[in-house]
Amino acid sequence: MLNLPAIKKLCEAASEAPWHRNCGTINTRDGWLVASLSIRGPGSNRKADAEFIAQARTLVPQLLDKLEEAQGKLDAVEDYEHWRDSHMAAEPGYIPACLGPDCPSCKQATDALLARILKGE
Ligand SMILES: [Zn+2]
Fold first, then answer.
1. Domains of the chain by residue range
2. Which of 45, 78, 86, 113 sits most deeply, having the most CB atoms within 10 A of its CB?
């Protein structure tokens, strides 16, 4: 399981993005040295590795934002499914409250779900 808050904390604590690759070094936006790669061996590619690290400084926060957005949408669907199961008495102990195909509660819940998904909350 990914620990998104921990990843976000790492991103926020790191030197400000973007980082840049200069041969085998990674530098901040202001040119300060972040790291220097000294990997030399079969299959190593210092420039590509440095580029990967430099780009990760920008891409990891972007991935995190997208994951949080997707998680919010998934939470909305799960909330809806829980509501629907109780509304339709799909779980033991619930009394059906659904009025059928034209049920106003179902329409309202579906509209609310779509709004949450479209907003990405
Ligand atoms: Zn209903």
1. 4-119
2. 113
